[in-house]
Amino acid sequence: MDYASILANITRHISLTKEEEDFFVSILNPRKLKQGEFAEKAGEVTTGFIQVASGCLMTYFTDKEGNDQVIQFSTAGWWTGDLHSLTKQEPSIYSTRALADSEILLLPKIRLEELLERYPKFERFFRIMFQNSLVTHQARLIEAFSLPAEERYNKFQKRYPQLEQYVPLKYIASYLGITPEFLSKIRRKRSN
Amino acid sequence: MDYASILANITRHISLTKEEEDFFVSILNPRKLKQGEFAEKAGEVTTGFIQVASGCLMTYFTDKEGNDQVIQFSTAGWWTGDLHSLTKQEPSIYSTRALADSEILLLPKIRLEELLERYPKFERFFRIMFQNSLVTHQARLIEAFSLPAEERYNKFQKRYPQLEQYVPLKYIASYLGITPEFLSKIRRKRSN
DNA sequence: GAATGATCTTGAACTAGATTAAGAAATCAG
DNA sequence: CTGATTTCTTAATCTAGTTCAAGATCATTC
């Protein structure tokens, strides 16, 4: 497991002493997932916050009709999970599944709380992380409403060029808020 | 200005000493806005983070065709502003305008940084606030993609029953991601 | 209180994207 | 390698929501 790059992601926002680094690494719970396996299942209470070390995962919501709505793809360096379930300890509405063989680091809820209490500077780290994520989510919401599907697909490809190699098109369609059939139409139209 | 309820909002998440309370209040910059006035204009660099004390504001994005896309309504107790412009000090893409005569408290960027440095527990406060906001934004994104406009309108009314008295329908339509004409159709259909 | 401007509604024509159904291509298991 | 399953594409039909244009209602100002 490559902890150096994981720590580098954190020290972009806050500086850590050796002691803090060691403690942080010590509370991470490494797990390997084969393609298709779940890191977390809807209906169960989330046990921790997930940091992706390698591979690719997706987090999605399944509605009553059984339609999956992808809300995030996560590759190395990304955090994922259901924050609501994590804080409130209610059953999660999201599932997180490996799209390729992956390694994840689970930060269990109790350990996360311990971390924040012992080294409050991690509050700052997560504050910055959530703040940035919020900015991204606001932008996505605006795009969802004001851009046609084709332009959303363009932006998606520019923003995450490496993802299309891992992710089946039907999940990209779902992320974009359209059907696989319509994504197919966009791709054909574009290749002419 | 009613600082008690503003402080109450904060002490729901972190506890404050008298000194911390006083300092926090001392850095807030009260401003009165008449209906229609701007708290913040797209294209200008955001000067601070906005807390609403009374009235009602909306934050919206204007695209190249000049269409407004409302992303948030804020009433007493809510924070608003452009987080990206605030942190990066780049021109804001959002405008924030009063929908009714309102009072706001501006927390200037430098003072915010001073607050976080002097009393790091406010990192925790904002971490929790952004985390909750993120949960809400994820849910909105899912709703935007998976629920028809009529149900989104239902949810909106249940969630913010007090808003319809302040907010012109065309802005509610924009918030829901539909045209005013279509919202009108939904309302007529419903009243039959 | 008339006039002006903004907001809201209505209806007709249109379009982006959904749905259904089927076949083609790719992936996987034994 | 072969059958089975999943993914991707194509085409026809349909619908939720848009656009355009006009009139009705409401608010604001002088």
Mean pLDDT of chain A: 95
Q: Give helix and strand order of chain A, one letter per element, not per position.
A: HHEEEEEEHEEHHHHH
> Largest sheet of chain A at a glance?
4 strands, antiparallel
CATH class placement of the domain at 3-119 in chain A: Mainly Beta
CATH topology of the domain at 3-119 in chain A: Jelly Rolls
**Morphology of chain A:** globular
Distance between the termini of chain A: 44 Å
**How much strand of chain A?**
15-25%
For this structure, the quaternary state is homodimer
Counting DSSP H or I runs of 4 or more residues, the number of helices of chain A is 8
CATH superfamily of the domain at 3-119 in chain A: Jelly Rolls
Report the structural category of chain A: alpha+beta
Q: Measured on Cα atoms, how large is the radius of gyration of chain A?
A: 18 Å
Protein chains sharing the most extensive interface: A-B, 29 and 29 residues
Number of strands of chain A: 8
Helix coverage percent of chain A? 40-55%
Strand order of the largest sheet of chain A: 1-8-3-6
Proper CATH architecture of the domain at 3-119 in chain A: Sandwich
Q: What does this 3D model show about the protein?
A:
The structure is a homodimer of 192-residue chains. The first copy, chain A, has helices spanning 3-11, 18-26, 83-88, 109-118, 121-146, 149-159, 169-176, 180-191, and strands spanning 29-33, 38-40, 48-54, 56-62, 68-75, 79-80, 94-98, 102-108. Chain A has 192 residues and is of the alpha+beta class. Chain A has a domain at 3-119: Sandwich (Jelly Rolls), CATH 2.60.120.10. In chain A, strands 1-8-3-6 form a four-stranded antiparallel β-sheet. In chain A, helix 7 crosses helix 8 (180-191). The structure holds a DNA duplex (30 and 30 nucleotides).
